[in-house]
Amino acid sequence: MLTIHRFEVPVDGVWHNHWINGPVLHVAARRENVVEFWAQYNDTGDLSHRAFIVVGTGMVLPDVAGWMHVGSCLINRYVWHLIECRPQGALPMVRSGDDRATSVGTRDDGTVES
After folding, report:
1. pLDDT of residue 25
2. How far apart are CA 64 and CA 75, in angstroms?
3. How far is CA 86 from its chain centroid?
4. What is d(CA 8, CA 16) in angstroms, rounded to the nearest whole number?
5. Cβ proximity of 92 and 15 under 8 Å
6. Cα-trace Rg, the chain
7. Which residue pairs, CB below 8 angstroms and at least 24 apart, start in 105-111?
8. CA atoms of 82 and 4, how far apart (whole Å)
9. What is the mean pLDDT of residues 80-106?
């Protein structure tokens, strides 16, 4: 069954892992310190390890092979760019404990649901 899941990547200069098996469909931000993206998910497909980092306009781009720009978004005075590094490149170091992140949802009041 195909569904769409929402993921978060903090604006902290650190790579964050997500397990995804479909294309990224949209990138946006509702808070200055977090970029969100929505990706297609197939519950019968194999998951792929994918690492993401957020870079602001004028900031240094990642120094790893295999990165690609996924999308950009505006929030207040910031323009954030979501960058992905797939395993075919030199896989970046990721934050400990973030290896098997799951999608989360945010209610309209800003609280988070799993």
Report:
1. 97
2. 27
3. 12
4. 9
5. yes
6. 14
7. 105/6, 106/6, 106/30, 106/36
8. 18
9. 56
Which pTM does this prediction carry?
0.75
3-state secondary structure the chain: CEEEEEEEEECCCCEEEEEECCCEEEEEEEECCEEEEEEEEECCCCCEEEEEEEEECCCCCCCCCCEEEEEEEEECCEEEEEEEECCCCCCCCECCCCCCCCCCEECCCCCEEC
94 pLDDT band, cuts 50/70/90, is very low
Question: What distance in Å separates the CA atoms of residue 111 and residue 12, rounded to the nearest whole number?
Answer: 20
Residue 47's pLDDT is what?
84
Residue type, 64: V
Cα–Cα distance, 14 to 98 (Å, whole number): 11
pLDDT in tens, 56-74: 999 999 888 889 999 999 9
Tokens encoding 96? 């400990």
What average pLDDT does range 93-97 have in this prediction?
43
What's the pLDDT score for residue 48? 82
